[in-house]
Every structure is written in structure tokens, then in C-alpha cells.
Amino acid sequence: MPFEDLQILSLTDEKEAKDLLGSIGVDPYGIESMAPKMRHLNILVKKVSCRHGNIIKQEMLSLGGDAAVSRGTVGCTDEQTDVLLMGTEKQIRRFAEKVANQPGSLKELSFVIKEALSRYLTGDFLWKTARRSLVINKRTLIMGILNCTPDSFSDGGKYRDKEKAVARALEMMEEGADIIDVGGESSRPGADPVSAEEEMRRTIPVIEELTRRASVPISIDTVKASVARAALQAGAEIINDISALTFDREMPEVAAKSKAGVVLMHMRGEPKTMQMGEIRYEDVVGDIIFYLKKRIEAAESWGIASEHLVCDPGVGFGKTVSHNYTILKRLSEFRVLGRPILVGVSRKSLIGAVTGEGPEKRLEGTAAAVTAAVLNGAAIVRVHDVKEMKKVVSVADAVRYGVDL
Question: Does 348 qualify as catalytic in the annotation?
């Protein structure tokens, strides 16, 4: 039977498209011209006027794409509509060029689409810390968790002793950790806050020792400016702030002056209350992206350059189990932020909800969640079990980026 070797292809990035065109023998000019036609995009634009909604739909149709609008848009019985642009990358870019000549909000939409595409299609990242620059390119970085606390949900109390904490950090480094994240205050659901003095007592001696002995960057997991300042003076390079610089008004200044790397995380409320009451989002992924976009803008307004920022959707922080899995499934959408995405799923309750096991028995579930995160676009994964997750990430990276042995 002829054509029995027909295939329906799944092309996830421009390189795959160009490699396929090259294998067919397309000339270089043709490859550059055709590759954008092979990537299909869906772009949601909210709260567009009825008149502009109709213009957008007609322009997209004229380019061979389409745009979905509300039923009442054509007759303008609806004042506003959300618009879903559907087309190839080339069609979307041509649309943006066409409406750039339109007055008012359509001209602004052209600019926003071009900026969003530029961020979304970014492949390589440079993450600047207080002491170095980390190149994130075709390899997912591993952040090892070091909880110097008595009450963390998984390993609370194991590393309260300085010598044990330092030994564990050095062990994680040997196992393949690219970053060591030191925390002195539990952020598990329902956790009580501790004083800055107690947090520093738990973490600063460990950071000072690690700075002398470790070759990888040290991160301080804190929401307190005084703790971050002391940690940076002790040798830390990164501030991992679960409040995205909102809990302590002095934190932005500490981050800006130190030129530290900063992790901006999304959280509903605070650890003590984040899982209480009804947890609702209009669209969990869209809402988190909007929040993180605003936090990036705020950070930049304080003098923190975007190259110093990483974003974390905050799996487990004020989300239901369903929300958490939706975040993992749609993680690639966070690429629109234009910054590396950090994901922390290690031993968390979303895994236990499926496997029925406690934190100490969630290794295999963590491996599956980490794999999903990597394949859907995570640049950094934050984990307890570095040795095991290093192997998991290596295989997931081979699937995601290919392997050259």
C-alpha cells in the first residue's frame, strides 16, 4: 500500500522544525522562511472592545489563521470580549505587523504580542547572582534543599546541627547539585513564623562554612531582609523569597544593592493560612503568570535587573491538588515571562494525594513530577533527593534536548 509510512508529527520547538526541513533537503532560505509556519500558537487576549475584536478576527482570517470571539461580538451586543488568536508563528507575526499601523489599543496590542513572542521563544538564559553568572542552556539545574529547621514537612530536625547540615550540603554537591538552598524557617502549610534572630542562628554559620568549602552558589530561603542581608554577607548569592519580595519592605533594597539572584514565587496568603478556606482561581495558570509579571515589573522598578530574576509558580503554596497538576501540565505557558522557571515538587502532598504515601516514601512520585516539570519547560528543579533526581533530570533532559553520545 502506498504512503503507509505517513506520519503526524509533534514539533515542539524551532530547532526540531529546522532539523526536519534540513533532512528533507530544503535550501537554507527556505528553512528560515518555513520554520515559523510549522509552529502553531494560541494567544489569549482579554477584555478587548467589540469593535477591535471584529477587526482582529478579520485580520487573522485574511492571513489564514483565525480568532475566537464571543457570540455577541459580531453584532456588538457585547461591550467586550476575550479573543483567542489561533495561527502559526508566521501568521501571528504578520498580524502584529499589520495592526501596528492601527491607532490606539491595536497598536499597543501589536507591541505586546511582539514582546510576548520574544520572551516565549527565548531558549537560553543567563541568571546573574551576587558572585557569578549561571548559563542555563540545554541542561536543567538542580537546587538541593537544606532545611536547617526542626519542623519542615519532610526532613525537619535532620540537619539542625551545623556539622550535619554542612556535611549534607557537600554531599548534595557531590551528587550533582548546582545550587544549595539553605532555609531556617519552615514554609509548610500551617507553619508558625520564627524570629529573624533564630533564623540567622540556624543558617548563617552553615552558610559561612559552605562558602569556604562549596564550589556552587548558596541560596538563602527567607522572606526577611535582615536574614537575607546577613546571609549575603556570609557568602550566599541568591535570595529565594516565597513572598516575591512582598513580606518585608526592605527586601527589594537588599536584593538590588547586593545584585543577588532572586527567586520570585507565587503564594496565596502566607504559610500559616495558605491552605485554609476555599482556594479559588479564575484560571490558576493565567492568574499566576499575571502575578509574576507584576512582580518582575516591581523588581525592575526597584533596580533589580531582569537577568537576576527567576520565577517559581509556587506548587503547593495556596493551591489544590488539581491546581498543582494543572500548573505542571501547562508549565510551558510560563515561558511568556521570559525568565527561567524554577519548580519545587519534591515530596509534596500533590504526590501523596495520588500515591497515598507519606513524605519519606514519595521518591518515585517525585521522579515522575520532576520529569513532567523538565519536559514542560522547567529550568531549575528544587529537590531533596539530589542523587536520584540527578539521574531523573539527566534522562528527561535527553528527551527534551536530545543526546550526543
Answer: yes
